[in-house]
Amino acid sequence: MSSLDWSVNQPKALEVTGLETRFHTQDGTVHAVNGVSFELREGELLGVVGESGSGKSVTMMSLLQLIPIPPGKIAAGSAIFNGRDLIKMNSDEIRGVRGGQIGFIFQDPMTSLNPVLTIGYQLTESLRLHMGMTNEQAHQRAVELLQLVGIPMAESRLSDYPHQFSGGMRQRVMIAIALACSPQLLIADEPTTALDVTIQAQIVDLVKRLRQEIGMSIIWITHDLGVVAGIADRVLVMYGGQIVEEAPVKELYAGPQHPYTLGLLGSLPRLDSNRNDRLLNIEGQPPNLSSAPVSCSFAPRCAYAYDRCREENPQLKPISGEHKIACWWNVKKGEPRYDR
C-alpha cells in the first residue's frame, strides 16, 4: 500500500488546528509558532523537518503544554486527541496524558534523565503513577522495557545511574521510559542528534521495529532529511514557525514544490552526483520572529520571490492529493500561482 493511500484511509489520531505559540521576553515578543495545522493518522510516522529555530520542537511541546509559562504562551489553536482538546486541559488532565497516552523522547538524554535517581526508579515512576502498578509489577515491567530496547543484563542495570550508560544506551532508556505505558502516540524530538552515525542507525532501526510491534503513531522531529526518507510515511517542512510544505515522503523527495524544500534537498550529498557537483547553499539568515508574519517568511532568501511574496503571506493549500504548499510561485511551471 502506498503512503498516500495508507494515510488517507486511516482514522485520525491527532488533529491540530491554528496553533500559535509566543514567548514574551525582555527584548520583545517572539512569535515561535504561527498558525500551524496538521493531522496525524493512526499508526502513521510523521516526519517534521526544518532548520534550527523553525518551530518544530516548540510546536510539539506546545501540544503537551511543556513550554515554560511564562515566558511562553499558547495564544491560539486546538489539538484534538481522543476527542479532547489538549490545549484546553488543566494541569492535572494534561499530566494524565503525558507519559500515559502520549510519550515524549527529548533531544538530550543526559539532561532529560535525573542524574541522582536510578534508571529503575525513573522507569517505574510512570508505571506506578499512570498504570497503578505495585512496586514488584513495575520492576518486572521495567526489566521487560529495557530488554525491548536492546539493553543487555537489563535487571542488573536498573540500579545504575544515567552517567553509567553510554550516549546510545541513555537514548534507549529514554525510549523505554516513553514506551512504558504503551502510549498511543510517541513524539521523538531529534532523538539521534547527539549520537554517532552507527548509534543513530541502531536507534532508527529500533524505533522502526517497535512501531511494527506496538503499532503506535509517531511524530519524528529532525533536521536530518536522510533519516526521514527511510522511516516516515508523510513529511511536514517547517520554516519561520509555519508549515511550508506537506506531502507523502516519496512524493516530497521526488517532486518538492516549495523553494525552501528544494534548498534543503539540494544541500544533501547524493551518491549519484558527479565529483564536481556543488551542494546548494540557502543564502541569508532565518527570519526575525519578533512579529507575526504578514508576508512570506522565506521571501528574503528565495530566488523565486516576487512582489506578492513580499506583500502577502501564503497559506498552506493542497496542490494535488495530500501534497500541500504555502507558496505564491509554481516552481514546476516557472510562473506565479495566480489562482491562489
In short:
With 340 residues, the chain is of the alpha/beta class. It has helices spanning 3-9, 56-63, 91-97, 109-112, 119-131, 135-148, 154-157, 167-179, 197-214, 225-231, 249-254, 259-266, 307-311, and strands spanning 12-25, 28-41, 45-49, 72-81, 84-85, 102-105, 185-189, 217-222, 234-239, 242-248, 317-320, 323-325, 329-330, 335-336.
Which structural traits does this protein have?
340 residues; 8-stranded mixed sheet; disordered N terminus; alpha/beta; 14 strands; 4-stranded antiparallel sheet; globular
Q: How would you describe this structure to a colleague?
A:
- The strands form three sheets. Strands 6-7-8-3-9-10-12-11 form an eight-stranded mixed sheet, with helices on both faces. Strands 2-1-4-5 form a four-stranded antiparallel sheet, covered by helices on one side. The protein has a two-stranded antiparallel sheet with strand order 13-14.
- The relative contact order is 0.14.
- It is globular.
- It has 340 residues and is α/β, with parallel strands linked by helices.
- The protein has helices at residues 3-9, 56-63, 91-97, 109-112, 119-131, 135-148, 154-157, 167-179, 197-214, 225-231, 249-254, 259-266, 307-311; strands at residues 12-25, 28-41, 45-49, 72-81, 84-85, 102-105, 185-189, 217-222, 234-239, 242-248, 317-320, 323-325, 329-330, 335-336.
